[in-house]
Amino acid sequence: MSEVLFRAAWASPSNIALVKYWGKYGIQLPSNPSISFTLSECRTESRLELLPKSGEQQIEVFLDGEKKDSFVPKIEKFLQRIAPEFDWLSEFNFRLHTRNTFPHSSGIASSASGMSALALIICDLHEQITGERFSDFHRRASHLARLGSGSACRSLYGGLVSWGEHAAIAGSSQDYGTPFAGNLHPVFQDFQDCILLVHQGTKSVSSTVGHDLMNGHPFAEKRFELAGQNLASLLNILESGDLEAFTQLVESEALMLHGLMMSSIPYFILMKPNTLKIIEKIWDYRKQYGIPVLFTLDAGANVHLLYPSSEKAKVEAWIEAELSGYCENKAYICDQVGKGPFRLNND
Ligand code: PMV
User: Fold this and answer.
1) I need a surface site. Which of 128, 284, 297, 311 has the fewest CB within 10 A?
2) Per-domain boundaries in the chain
């Protein structure tokens, strides 16, 4: 086995958008601003080893210790995209070891956590190899993560992170994520997200195709405008702690996202019958008990059930008793707002 010349390892979390990014232009630039909660337990842990190269560059990827040739093209494409920024990239062979703390087949997108972990690793290696120090390490990593997978650029910080230019967010950029700098109400500081795994497996339509269908979508212009308005309203809600307004805005964003999918040409539906059954259950429970539980959806059939930590015991008992039956193999993952990525021990 060849000698490892440099190595770096990072763990980076997944995130769940409250105001959704749907539609892009250029190289992964968002058509509208978005904001997400960074998760805690759902994350990717990766280690990249740089090896001596002679001849053509070789890239090996291992998932949970097993060689995964099918992952190579995505990594290769990412490395090609960022190559103009890092001269040293072409000088080594690469061996990437990666694992997700959530099941790979769960339908939870691993691109945000995976690409943000890899972006951090590249920045870390750059510092090791060149001796240069980034004064804006996380921002630089966020920019790189965006080039891998748009929403990944929001996984670089804990708490709430926006992405995309917005008049009400100082320093906001199309290029990278910006951590929420307001006075976050305590109720949101440890908000819970239980991911109900309605459909585990690959989705019928990728988000890349979905984003493309926003070009020429009949509702595109109005949608991009509404996303900006919703983000402005949400910024106030995050400070006031108004859970009723939060619920309405977040659920409306989720349904609008799926409404856009259903009204594009070609149209498609990613929700499953059990997605709708769970939504009905959530609405009934909220009405009956007055407990603030709400949902959001990403580009798939799984339901993210959001609730304050003060309701954790009651809500989790209800999930187990009533909602797990609508999940594939009764599977769900309870997570919460997290603190962002961290460096791993290198061995
Ligand atoms: O980053 P992508 O290309 O996987 O797109 C993510 C899109 C949504 O998850 C639906 C919304 C979002 O803002 O994360």
Assistant:
1) 284
2) 6-182, 186-336
pLDDT at 106: 65
User: Angle CA(344)–CA(345)–CA(347) in degrees, nearest 5?
Assistant: 125
Which atom of ligand 1 is nearest the CA belonging to 112?
Answer: 1
Ligand 1 pocket, residue 149 CB under 6 Å: yes
Q: Is the C-beta atom of 17 inside 6 A of ligand 1?
A: yes
Give per-residue pLDDT as tens, 196-250: 999 987 777 888 899 999 999 999 999 999 999 999 999 999 999 999 999 999 9
For residue 150, how far is its CA from the centre of ligand 1 (angstroms)?
7
- Ligand 1 probe mutation, 207, 223, 230, most atoms within 8 A of CB: 207
pLDDT band of 1, cuts 50, 70, 90: low
Provide CATH code, domain 6-182.
3.30.230.10
Q: 298 alpha carbon to ligand 1 midpoint, in Å?
A: 7
Instruction: Compute the distance between CA of residue 219 and CA of residue 42 in angstroms, rounded to an integer.
Output: 33
Mean pLDDT of the chain: 96
CA of 151, closest atom in ligand 1: 1
Q: What does pTM read for this prediction?
A: 0.96
- Closest by Cα among 25, 148, 33 to 85: 148
Over residues 110-124, mean pLDDT:
96
Distance 116 CA to ligand 1 centre (A): 14
**From the CA of 17, how far away is ligand 1's center (Å)?**
8
Fold entry, domain 186-336: Alpha-Beta Plaits (3.30.70)
> CA torsion angle for 124, 336, 301, 35 (degrees, to 10)?
-60
Half-sphere exposure of 122 (CA within 13 A, CB side): 29
Of 203, 293, 311, 206, the residue nearest 251 (C-alpha): 293
The string of pLDDT tens digits covering residues 159-171 is 999 999 999 999 9
Dist. CA 23 → ligand 1 center (Å): 9
Q: What is the 8-class DSSP label of residue 198? A: S
| Predicted local confidence at residue 203, as pLDDT | 74
Identify the pLDDT of residue 67.
97
